[in-house]
Structures are given as C-alpha cells and as structure tokens.
Write a structure and sequence with these properties.
By secondary structure, chain A is of the alpha+beta class. Chain A has 5 helices and 3 strands. A 3-stranded antiparallel β-sheet of chain A has the order 1-3-2. In chain A, strand 2 (about 70-80) and strand 3 form a beta hairpin. In chain B, a hairpin with a 5-residue loop joins strand 1 and strand 2. Chain B has 2 domains: about 1-65, no CATH class; about 65-205, no CATH class. The chains are: A alpha+beta (about 120), B mainly alpha (about 210). Chains A and B meet through helix 1, helix 4 and strand 3 of A and helix 2, helix 3, helix 4 and helix 7 of B.
Chain lengths: ~120, ~210
C-alpha cells in the first residue's frame, strides 16, 4: 500500500532485493577469497558474514557459471561425512575480477556515504 | 520422524532423475557433476543433526526449488556463459531449444529467435545468390491470383513471378548483407538479453 509520500513497502523491498542481487557475484568471489569452500559452506558464509540469505537453487547454477567463465575452479575432496564434496576456489582470473569488483564497490559506497551523510545526521 | 535410508534415497533419486532429464543441452560430464554435487548437498543438509529425516530431505529439496526451475537456471546460466565464449547461432539455438522445453518464457524466446535467424539467413542468402541468378533472385513485388499485392524474397529458383517487379535489383547485395547480418546479430543479442532478464528476475525472486 502506498504511503502519503507515494513510497510503498513493496517497492522498498524490491529495491533492497535488487541491491542484494546485484552484489551476489562479488559476494561469492569474496567468500572464496580466503580459501576453497564447498557449496553449503559458501551459503553459510554468505549468511553469517554478509546477511545475504540466498537460496541453494540460485547459488549452485551461479557457481557453475563462474566456473564456465574461468573465475573459479572446482575439485572433489573426500570428507568425514562419508561422501566427497565439490570445493570451489578462485582462479587467478577470479582473483583479478574480485579485486576489480571490490574496488568498484568501495569507490561507489564511499561516494554514496558522502551523499547520505546529511540523511544520517537528520535521523 | 525418521525415515528409512532407502525411502530418503528414493526421494532424492526421484528429484535428481527429474533434474537430469531436464538438463539436456548441457554436456554429460557437467550434468553428472551437477547431479552428484546436489546429491551430496541434500545429504549434508538433510543429515545436519546426524540423522537423515523426512523433514530434512523435504526441506533440502524445497530449498533447491522444483527440478524444472533449477534446470532452467542452469540452462540460462550455461547459455550466458557459452555466449561469452562463442556467439554461434547454432549453439544459442541449441540452448534455447532446451530452455523452451522447460518454460513458457523460453518457448517465446525460441520462437522469436527462430524468426530472427530465419529472416537473417534468407537476406544473406538472397544477397549471395544474386550474382548467380540475377534475373530471379531478389525482393519481388507482384500480385497473386486473388489480386493482392505480395512481397517475396526469392533465392532465384524457378521463374520470376508473372508481372512482378524486382524492387531492389542489384541493391539486394549490399542491403541483403547488411540487413541479414544485422538481423543475425540483433537476434543473438535479443536471446541473450532475454536470458539475462529471466535469470535476473529469477535471482531477484529467490534471493
């Protein structure tokens, strides 16, 4: 329902989801920065470190695409659970892409922070 | 409620079997890896407390979405990843055929792409055969048996239409090449744009 100022909750939610979705690829590359992880660990890392709650049905195809693009590589490693797990790690191209994206993100968020500073003071 | 190992296994296998069938279009080795990875993911999630439960298996499968939805995501991602390497219309159409079998959106994108590629190829062919069939190949305008005005791209086979006029003449060569190649490029861009929009809206829906 629209408020008096024309802003409705649904639009706000959609905007937030779009914002989260836009940084999903960067978030996955960043999660892999410190070492190899398997799919479920990536999901948990995103959930605990970034507040990004992503469905499995979104992350696995995306990992597959990042692999096809040569940004991550994968290997099967035996685990204590009794079955192997597919671990993903960044390739040199993936590290380069992660740094590029992180740089863009930092510049963008820093300029946005300046712009948003008066709003923070006015709260 | 604890379920027997065989019940859990059967439920998982049914899901993975449906997914495997719908992943046609991705190479066999990749399909095997996808299926194995998801099998172990489901077991990890369902057995998080040490015992595989019916609720655990159901929750893990629900979180993945239906096999059709999941296959659609793999196929559109595969289409986009392959397009980064090669923009071959054959590869794109092949991926679109599989996507079309899974979703209405894919069907309409396939339909539009077939039309675009068809007209693109016809324009290019018309330009290429004009030097070999100068009297008959080209863009013809004529009246059919009912008297209606008909426009037709002819590749030069058979005789020219009675009372017809070759509108472009030799201009069909440069125009056919430019329009044909343009249509082929635009169709590829259209198909990839649709795949991106579909993928984005799907991620948007699920994040």
């Amino acid at each position: 329902m629209k408020g008096a100022d024309g802003w409705d909750q649904a639009t706000g939610d959609k905007w937030e989801v779009q914002l989260r979705k836009g940084c999903l690829e960067l978030a996955i590359l960043a999660a892999l920065w410190s070492g190899k992880l398997y799919g479920l660990e990536i999901l948990r890392r995103l959930e605990s470190d970034s507040d990004l709650i992503v469905s499995e049905g979104t992350v696995y195809p995306l990992l597959s695409r990042l692999k096809a693009l040569g940004l991550v590589r994968s290997e099967w490693i035996e685990s204590d659970a009794g079955h192997p797990r597919k671990y993903y790690a960044l390739t040199p191209a993936g590290k380069h892409r992660a740094l590029d994206m992180a740089g863009t993100w930092t510049r963008f968020s820093s300029s946005m922070s300046k712009l948003l500073a008066p709003l923070e003071k006015g709260k | 409620m604890a379920m027997s190992a065989s019940d859990a296994q059967q439920r998982v296998e049914t899901y993975l079997g449906r997914l495997r069938v719908r992943l046609r279009g991705i190479n066999d080795l990749d399909v095997r890896e996808i299926v194995e990875e998801l099998r172990f993911h489901i077991l990890d999630k369902a057995g998080v407390s040490g015992e595989v439960t019916a609720a655990g298996v159901d929750a893990a499968l629900a979180a993945l979405g239906s096999p059709e939805e999941l296959a659609s995501e793999y196929l559109t991602d595969s289409l986009l990843a392959r397009a980064e390497v090669s923009r071959s219309p054959v590869q794109i159409l092949e991926s679109l055929f599989h996507w079309a079998s899974l979703s209405v959106a894919g069907f309409f994108v396939l339909l539009g792409s077939i039309l675009g590629y068809f007209f693109g190829v016809v324009f290019v062919l018309c330009a290429l055969v004009k030097p070999f069939h100068p009297q008959t190949a080209g863009l013809w305008v004529f009246r059919d048996s009912t008297g209606s005005l008909v426009t037709s791209l002819r590749l030069g086979f058979g005789s020219p239409p009675v009372g017809g006029r070759d509108v472009l003449g030799w201009w069909i060569v440069p125009i056919g090449l430019v329009v044909g190649c343009g249509l082929l490029m635009l169709t590829t861009r259209f198909a990839l744009w649709c795949a991106r929009v579909y993928r984005r809206s799907h991620v948007l829906h699920r994040v």
